[in-house]
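Email to the structure team, subject: NAD kinase model.

Hi all, the expression group asked for a predicted structure before they design truncation constructs. Nothing fancy, just the tokens so they can compare against earlier work. One-line instruction: predict NAD kinase, return tokens.
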Amino acid sequence: MDNIRLGIFPNMSIVKVRIHFEAILALCRKYKITVVLPDKLAEMYSLEPFAGRNSQLTAAVSLGGDGTFLRMARDMVKINVPVFGVNFGHLGFLAEIEYDTMEQAFQLLTDGRYSIEKRCLLQAQTFAEGRKTPQNELAINEFVAARSNLSTTNHMELYINGKPSARYAADGLIVATATGSTAYSLSAGGPLVQPGMDVMVITPICAHSLATRPLVIPATEEVEIRLLPRNTSPMALSADGIPVCEIGQKDVVRISKNRQFLRLLRLTDKSYYETWQEKLIRDL
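Reply from the structure team: attached below.
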């Protein structure tokens, strides 16, 4: 593939990233890859600064953990650029390339030997009392409605396609994509879901009933979260760990599938089942 323009988005707070960063730039020169960097790094290394859609990127790569990947990917979704990640963090479900296989990955990239997977995204509209238009937000992994007051239990009602479907007394509620099933939802007791599936995973956080279990529903459904009258404190809504807004007593959070997709560039033929085995059971 000719004239590859690669956006590189490193987490320079990670020691290993700082140690290997110049070697990664050298790899790009070896494979004649044009590098685009965030402003400050571009100035430091006399390279082209990232300018959104005008950068005309072939692909974008994060150097860090899954958090670094998510921050980059949220920006790349807006300009339809395929993404991949090099893992310098811990588990690395999303950043699936390891540093020691990076040269092989660059060789595959320049040869055009890769696949692009489309991953489902979620959108949330928050309808607040006194606000004329809803607040809109996008999530790759999950939306989380959680308590903002640590001393209280949240009482919520879940609607699916406009119909009351469940009530929860819990610390919060996670609505995740299949991609996000390996993140917060998994820690809260949710199921592992093959990431290509078009579903939502609804997982309560520390539910106060043993009968409360996660739900897996088609992503074509529309979910609403409302606070019950006995809920005396507001809740906080976040998207992929980023705070979005406060949820008040009369507010409604409506979550549905977004029309856009995350385009995940895959440079390995490793199956998800191998990855799950490797990441989750490696210390046993």
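The two ends are 42 Å apart (CA to CA). Residues 121-260 form a domain with the Tumour Suppressor Smad4 fold (CATH 2.60.200.30). Ping us if the truncation boundaries need rechecking.
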